Amino acid sequence: MEISGGVHRDTGYGSRYRELEKAIKRAFPDAVVTGEVGRSHSFEVTVNGQLIHSKLQTNQFPEAQMVVARIQQM
Asked: Distance between terminal CA atoms of the chain?
């Protein structure tokens, strides 16, 4: 399972990414979790290429429990 988070470099989103990464790794120890720089004010989460959360669409950061639950449903 590959999970990617696209976060904007200059906004201090790194700590939010690391928090989400830890929650995902606790639930899915074998998951490959990567982060990459995205668009301004973005925080996108994809699983195996499928977008499961977009801060650009929702105006909200992803909640770790929601992300884990959505991954479990896949």
From this structure: 11
- pLDDT tens digits, residue range 6-52? 665 556 788 888 899 999 999 999 999 988 877 788 889 999 989 99
C-alpha to C-alpha distance for 3 and 49, rounded to whole angstroms: 8
SS3 3: strand
Is the pTM higher than 0.85?
no
CB neighbour list of residue 37: distance below 8 Å, 6 or more residues apart: 6, 7, 8, 9
Q: Which amino acid is at 3?
A: I
